[in-house]
């Protein structure tokens, strides 16, 4: 079976970057922790909410790297000197990645009741009409 790519469609010019973004997104390694929601808050704004109970603000980092929103969490090990009879709450690190379309900007981040909210907005694209002159050859 032949793998279909965007290059297989001759009328789709310049979309190679989109194909690379889709491949990168598929390989991003997001496994399921922490769970998250994505909601549309207005016509052109969104909110990503991650369940990060047990993490403090200083345990989290939010960066935008090459049009990709990356949220990382790393808890410090505070178990030294403590004796656990049962340890069911894992202190583990995570990384969640979200690919951002052109024009999507990351707004503020808010920590509330063990939930990390990250707001995104997208500018309305301008409609551009360009007339190309034809030269005689």
Commentary on this structure:
The chain is 8% helix and 35% strand. It is mostly beta strands and 137 residues long. Strand 6 and strand 7 (115-122) form a beta hairpin. The mean pLDDT is 86.
Number of strands: 7
Instruction: Determine the N-to-C terminus distance.
Output: 45 Å
Give the strand order, joined by hyphens, for the main sheet: 1-2-7-6
CATH topology of the domain at 33-76 and 92-123: Immunoglobulin-like
- Mean pLDDT across every amino acid position: 86
Proportion of strand residues: 35-45%
**Rounded radius of gyration (Å):** 21 Å
Provide the structure class.
mainly beta
Can you count the helices?
1
Short characterization:
By secondary structure, this protein is mostly beta strands.
What labels describe this entry?
single chain, 137 residues, mainly beta, Immunoglobulin-like, four-stranded antiparallel sheet, three-stranded antiparallel sheet, 7 strands
How are the SSEs placed, and which strands pair?
Blueprint: H1 16-26, E1 36-42, E2 45-51, E3 60-64, E4 68-73, E5 94-99, E6 104-112, E7 115-122
